[in-house]
Amino acid sequence: MKSRRTLLAAATLAVALTTGMTVALTPAAGAGTTLKAAAAEKGRYFGAAVAVNKLSTSAYTTILNREFNSVVAENEMKWASNEPQQGVFNHSSGDRLVSHAQANGMSVRGHTLLWHAQQPGWAQGMSGSALRNAAINHVTQVATHYRGKIYAWDVVNEAFADGGSGGRRDSNLQRTGNDWIEAAFRAARAADPGAKLCYNDYNTDGVNAKSTGIYNMVRDFKSRGVPIDCVGFQSHLGTSLAS
Predict the structure, then answer these.
(1) pLDDT truncated to tens, each residue of the chain (243 aa)?
(2) What is the pTM of this model?
């Protein structure tokens, strides 16, 4: 478990990255002089969510490039952003993030191929087989476009319900059939065999109905050869600074 001091330092840096402040961190004796160096010493990476329009802000990119060795797009790789019209893809913002990462020795986590939220309007108006086909085509086209450039994809995001049921969230994607998540993972593997494929959700870092439901899904997938490599424990952390 991380110490309170470590968590506070990480949270403070997150605020600094968002606001463009510069924060000096004092490393522990013998540790790496940056967060990414300290992570690399343990065979890990330390990442940040990036709004691509911030890459033109020098204070932002200075901290990003110095402290982090992995990035994930805040919104630029979500369905509404990169397929605003059916079959018409716009990868310009995602490509900019990938180019920045490659130029600075960073890995890229793709977020997210399918999610019940932030869908384009045309997809929100679909259902049944039409939506299923459109969703799988989206997975295939986006993963193919970034083939070999993404370390890990959040293939499906937040598909399980909160509360005590341990079941799936009611969404237009879920209503296309209970196997939609499996179909998405198989399509992602076919499109980019080298990327790690993750399921991502929140409120799952403890044992509860939701995390148990996800565990059972992953166990079923592994037993049947459905390609899945990881589960993301999503959290939204914040801190407030006294005035």
Answers:
(1) 443 333 333 333 333 333 333 333 444 545 679 999 999 999 999 999 999 999 999 999 999 999 999 999 999 999 999 999 999 999 999 999 999 999 999 999 999 999 999 999 999 999 999 999 999 999 999 999 999 999 999 999 999 999 999 999 999 999 999 999 999 999 999 999 999 999 999 999 999 999 999 999 999 999 999 999 999 999 877 777 655
(2) 0.85
If phi > 0 it is left, if psi is from -120 to 50 it is alpha, else beta; for residue 90 that is: beta
